[in-house]
Amino acid sequence: MSPVTTAFVMFFGRGGGSEVEERLDAVRIAIGSSVLKRAARAGFTPLVAVTADASATQAFRDSGATTVTPERGTFHFGTELKRVAGRFGVERMCAMGAGAGALLTEDDLLGIRRDLEGSEALVLSNNYYSADLVAFTPASALDAIALPATDNPLPRLLHQQGGLPTRQLTRSAATLLDVDTPADATVLVRHPSCPGDLRGIPTWEAELGARIDALMRLVTTPDKELLVAGRVGAPVWTFLETQTACRVRMLAEERGMQAAGRDARGEARTALGFLYAEVGPERFFERMGELGDGMLFDSRVLFAHLGWHPGPADRFASDLFSHETIAHADVRAFTKSAATAGIPLLLGGQTLVSGVLWTMVEAAWVGHP
Q1: Cα gap 150→130, rounded to integer Å
Q2: What pLDDT, on the 0 to 100 scale, is given for residue 256?
Q3: Which of 38, 81, 245, 317 could form a disulfide with 322 if both were Cys (CB 3.0 to 4.6 A apart)?
Q4: pLDDT of 147-160, one tens digit each?
């Protein structure tokens, strides 16, 4: 009888050519390499990395992975995952993008492997509707679904179309944090469980460190109020209600915006978007200062509501409050006002109000009773 094997599949695709994107790529490669090493110690085999990038290929091979070059043309996640399953003849797979899983321990990964190997049919994910980590068996279920272009809808498709029982992993900083913006990386290295081989990754401490530290002090201080706006899920809200000393004001809107295509179709709507259109950037951030002593702002929902479509370089420059480098005039004005909002403020995407927020709160309590 052949031994039971469970594959671990890492995906990496390089971003654009801006300085921030290149630095983020280096961070994601470092995280991917670290996670692959932990997956090997947790007993996953084979380790497979899907990438066309030379630097990532070398780094992932050094971490013990066999590298696979994606087919030419537009990258398609589902097609590549099915190709890996067929090439390596595996029926159990755990897949994630480089950047996810930075805080997953060897024991966490071992638990995922054992759950798969103890089940005939199962799909595990960190988020049923928008996954960054998906583990499932049997791989033949991929034949029964409409293969997705990205990893986000895979758990839902395997459940609804493939008939696999589904379970979400326990939510934590480890399962929710996916590093794909400057704030994500800068918060990661503050967490007490950040692996030693990642503590030296290049972050954006000069641009964001003081803001993050101020927000960490805020969440452990009674009588302060934290404003969180964007695609916030109920589990994160519950976590904040029980794990912060401050009050929390939540504006949760447009969950599943990208998965449903509402942003692409111009259908996304947010109360803050209506306010911004009425009062403009300066008065908008004055109002935000009246609602909280600090803020985490999933700005992509506002951008979608207002019909703004900045490229990655402009989005990341906004996250870094570098308004002078932003080509998109409206995003530049928004960012300039955000930089002088008068309260500690972080900008980013959906991860900011889920994994980053969770990680920041956990880190904030280090040294506190």
Answers
A1: 10
A2: 80
A3: 317
A4: 999 998 999 999 99
pLDDT of residue 2: 53
Q: What pTM, to 2 d.p., does this model score?
A: 0.93
Give residue-wise pLDDT tens across range 209-224.
Answer: 999 999 999 999 999 9
- Contact status, residue 320 vs residue 186, Cβ threshold 8 Å: no
Q: How far apart are CA 211 and CA 237, in angstroms?
A: 21
- What's the average model confidence in pLDDT over 329-355? 96
With tokens 């403020």, the residue in question is 345
Q: How many CB atoms lie within 10 A of CB 96?
A: 23
- Written as six digits, the tokens of 351 are 């991860």
C-alpha dihedral, 112 to 114 to 119 to 120, nearest 10°: 90
205 three-state secondary structure: helix
Residue that is written with structure tokens 């207002």 in the block: 306
Alpha helices in the chain (DSSP H): 19-41, 54-62, 77-88, 106-117, 154-160, 173-176, 182-188, 205-219, 234-243, 257-260, 271-291, 299-306, 312-319, 329-339, 355-364
Longest dimension (CA), the chain: 70
Distance of CA 92 to the CA centre of its chain: 24
In this model, does residue 319 exceed pLDDT 50?
Answer: yes
* Inter-CA distances, 179 with 71, 110, 166, 250, 355, Å: 25, 22, 25, 23, 9
Domain 7-169 has what CATH class?
alpha beta
CA 179 to chain centre: 5
Nearest CA-CA partner of 136 in 155, 152, 111:
155
Which run of H or E residues covers position 8? strand 7-11
pLDDT, tens only, 254-271: 988 887 788 989 999 999
Domain boundaries, the chain: 7-169, 182-364
